[in-house]
Amino acid sequence: MINSQKLRKRDLYLDKLIAFQDTEPVKIITGIRRCGKSSVLKLMIAHLKEKGIAEDQIVEMNFESHAFRKMTGDNLYDYIKARIQPKKRMYLFFDEVQRVPEWEDAVNSFRVDFDCDIYITGSNAYLLSSEYSTYLSGRSVEIKMLPLSFSEFLSFHDFKIKESETVLGGVHRQAIDKYGERYELREVFDAYMHFGGMPGIADVGLDQEKAMALLEGIYSTVVMRDILERENRRGLKRITDPILLRKIILFLADNVGSSVSVSSIGNTLVNEGLLEDGKRKGSPSAHTVQAYVNALLEAFFFYDIKRFDIKGKDYLRTLGKYYIVDIGLRNYLLGFRDRDSGHAIENVVYFELLRRGYDVAIGKVDNMEVDFIASKMDDKLYVQVTESMISENIRRRELAPLQKISDNYEKIILSLDPGLNPSYEGIKSIDLIDWLVR
């Protein structure tokens, strides 16, 4: 039985599932391990029961369970077939389905053979590879799940926002915990930047030792199950060197928001003495490094972002950037530090834009860069991110690329200290934390 009282809301994702309920596409929730995919399936099951769907119409299977450890695609088909209720619509929920060999055949057969609505989760982008797509002929919809946003972090940790009017007529926001204690919103944001947004941290509390242990477990599981083991099963370019993999992870984590080329990663690791294994001569090949980076992208550990020439209106093949899926995982890997906090908040803004449904690219205008071009449908948003807008030199630097863009789409600068002037020639200076909780 599911106790929905113990499940914390993830309405952003649950609402998407509900919107696709009883439609033909297979609903596929993807995202890094432990970001909440299983919980959203349980929330959807709770929703169905509230709407009157009977218990025997719902089949839920978590393939992380020992009970299904040796299941094959054929076993899965037989298991479901035995539970089909005649003349009733079935709701099938498969968690971490990629662990079942030939699961694609079984899922496609359910869609063809039974009156059913199918929901699956997976911790690897291979779920939506071209090979899988051929089975469903485009009859699937992907719901991309991320760790907690700052707003979700507030909710999961039982904070409520209290607004009051300032002397100058503005809005002052404070966070109130479940005991009635008041905190400045910046204090709670600093905790978010410290611990990150993995939902499990809400269960252990904002305790550094417990949080780091939880993040270590997530890291180890991603590396072992979704990268090292998964590559062996697929039989493609094998990720066999855990030491090299960790060095690449550390390099990318250390360089979030910086321009990186795959060929430079191996060279840098050798030059900095990070690859001193006597068995190696020179740097690993660019092909090898690319395979390792691709594995990290497929496991949703890092996300890559391309450059877009605003004036030429085309994507560029020059250096891209990488962002880590959770800032808490970065702190686990590198330790806590302030020296690159600007890149850390840029990392947070990138994923918030993804949550809000934008396609995101880096903008190039002449020889300058716009941190993010965020596009969806006919809407576009240009975004700069900086820690503070107080310094005149920084203001000039952040405004310059936006001032070179001639179209009329919204242009904003997000910072933790936006200064007193809310607008510069139509370019808005917005408090980052206020923007995150909108």
In short:
The protein has 438 residues and is of the alpha/beta class. 40% of the residues lie in helices and 22% in strands. Residues 1-5 have low confidence and may be disordered.
Folded structure, characterized:
The two termini are about 35 Å apart. A hairpin with a 5-residue loop joins strand 7 and strand 8 (about 180-185). The chain is α/β, with parallel strands linked by helices and about 450 residues long. The longest helix is centred in the middle third of the chain and has 27 residues, at about 210-235. The protein has 16 helices and 16 strands. The protein has 2 domains: about 5-145, P-loop containing nucleotide triphosphate hydrolases (Rossmann fold), CATH 3.40.50; about 210-435, no CATH class.
